[in-house]
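Changelog note: in this version the structure field was regenerated for every chain. One regenerated record is shown below for reference.
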Amino acid sequence: MTSPSYRDVLTAAERLSGRVHRTPVLTSALLDSASGASLFFKCEHLQKVGAFKARGAANAVFSLDESYIKQGFATHSSGNHGAALARAAALRQVPAYIVVPSNAPQVKQDAIAAYGAEIILCEPTLAAREQTLAAVIERTGAVAVHPYDDPRVIAGQGTATLELIEQVPGLDVIVVPVGGGGLLAGTCLVAEQVGISVIAAEPVGADDAHRSFTAGQRITQHTPDTICDGLQTTLGAQNFDIIRPRLEQVMVLEDSVTAHAMALIWTRMKQVVEPSAAIVLAAVLTNPVRFAGRKVGLVLTGGNVDLERLPFGRDHERNSPSR
């Protein structure tokens, strides 16, 4: 499969019509005031399966002829992509096999199971995930859909930004989280067409994208430690090739700042998002000079929160803007 292009994103948008939500864009006068910028939140936490991952998975699944998919689909995922692939496979009435690290949030495991997929647990390392997936594919004959380093997935994820720039003309910059980089790569392909800058937000405890971008080569030595469970994966090879010449910057954020941003989105916007989504607001609030006076698009990537792992501290209100 060749590297995806902007045209592939346009094709994906046509393919996904009626199969995923065209999610809304929300604003907050209070958060605009706190940041000194005009913020436009693309609400992918309101997407099918509660995450943008529905786009890439559905594009991959529906891009293949029925003769290729009779044995179903398989992937490895910490949660959102797994649920998205399980849903897309169910729509095509074929099996789905999802390899899940044993430390994945239970809420995400439950979502995968709810779509009828078979869950195969593995150790929480990339090597274990890949080895287990290979064994599953050999056993089942299922078609592999990589969670982020797949051109069909990348093109599908890019449709979120395609919608955003249609909904909010004149954006100066778009901020997206980066884990494996599928959404970031798709965003870069779209933003490049209209001259919008792209900034990635990444946790300190999983900063391989920042290190890769700084070094000019992909860094794969990676032991994640962050509340942003959706951003623990290593940056994909195809994605790095796409983002490297197009990305402006990778901002690295402490988990404490992300937890505070998550609390603000919950309490001020009344939107339930997970830490991996809230990190984009954390990037803006901790870099006010960079964003001051600009129209900023922020992709809220998911809302599948494990309530038992909420990172909110009792003192977050002390640093919150007044009502």
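Spot check on this record: The longest strand covers residues 197-203. The chain has 13 helices and ten strands.
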